[in-house]
Write a sequence for this structure.
């Protein structure tokens, strides 16, 4: 990986978030905290950017209770104002109304979309922006739910690879147990990113950085990238 000055990157990110929020005429930031590394980093940086105008939302949705405890532990360690909004019953109620057949991914993608809806409620209410947590590895692969965790106003970590976010997290003193957790979208019990993708973030990041790596990694990255191009664009418009 590239040698980087993570203290300088952290200061740059804080300054960037402040400028973007101010350019938008907004007053602060709302961040969803999952108990994972990316959102812990973004919550800590947003708190630095807006010490008194930053809210974290912890939104379990049939989630592992340890993740909620981890998110609360980070919020308390860094004195971050947070609310817990449990979306489980909302999710189950909606699914009971609309479900036609079993489809794990179609059902699971509703969870990040309910979180997005909730984040925007608080953003509207407080004149805050929704600060996302997607990193360069996820954006490159399109490994996020369209209009779910991809439905955000700012993507400050979008130029940092997953492995670089880990270095940034260490520099920010994010608790080790969060840094060490296997990355997971938490969409179903036992899901891990690396199992779903079939390759490790180390290998993915090396390939993104250098264009080199085993054939399997190349095909996973290139196919995912091609399949998800639409996720990073505005919807197609029929031009008159
Ligand atoms: N060419 C095209 N042009 C315009 N739109 C197109 C399209 N192809 C599909 N679509 C639309 O996109 C939909 C598919 O995209 P989407 O609904 O996102 O669904 P999809 O990409 O199938 O699933 C989301 C993936 O992201 C992963 N994820 C989700 C959440 C968080 C994280 C994480 O680690 O942080 C990872 C999740 O595990 C899963 O692998 C289609 O149903 C269709 O509506
Ligand atoms: N239970 C949750 N409560 C609040 N926000 C959540 C929750 N789960 C996911 N999110 C939001 O959606 C983003 C995508 O989360 P996800 O769990 O899919 O994996 P991730 O990209 O590995 O992020 P993280 O490392 O923060 O878990 C999170 O970073 C967070 O902002």
């Amino acid at each position: 990986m590239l040698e980087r000055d993570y203290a300088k990157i952290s200061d740059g990110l804080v300054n960037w978030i402040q400028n973007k929020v101010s350019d938008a005429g907004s007053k602060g930031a709302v961040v969803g905290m999952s108990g994972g590394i990316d959102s812990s980093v973004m919550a800590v940086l947003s708190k630095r950017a807006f010490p008194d105008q930053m809210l974290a939302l912890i939104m379990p949705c049939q989630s592992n209770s340890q993740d909620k405890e981890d998110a609360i532990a980070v919020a308390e360690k860094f004195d971050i104002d947070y609310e817990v909004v449990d979306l489980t019953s909302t999710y189950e109620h909606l699914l009971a109304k609309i479900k036609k057949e079993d489809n794990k991914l179609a059902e699971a993608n509703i969870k990040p979309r309910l979180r997005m809806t909730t984040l925007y409620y608080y953003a509207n209410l407080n004149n805050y922006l929704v600060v996302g947590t997607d990193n360069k590895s996820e954006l490159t692969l399109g490994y996020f739910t369209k209009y779910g965790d991809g439905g955000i106003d700012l993507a400050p970590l979008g130029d940092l690879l997953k492995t670089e976010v880990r270095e940034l997290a260490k520099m920010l003193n994010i608790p080790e147990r969060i840094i060490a957790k296997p990355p997971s979208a938490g969409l179903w019990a036992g899901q891990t990113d690396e199992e779903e993708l079939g390759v490790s973030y180390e290998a993915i990041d090396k390939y993104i950085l250098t264009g080199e790596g085993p054939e399997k990694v190349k095909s996973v990255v290139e196919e995912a990238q091609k399949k998800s191009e639409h996720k990073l664009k505005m919807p197609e418009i029929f031009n008159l």
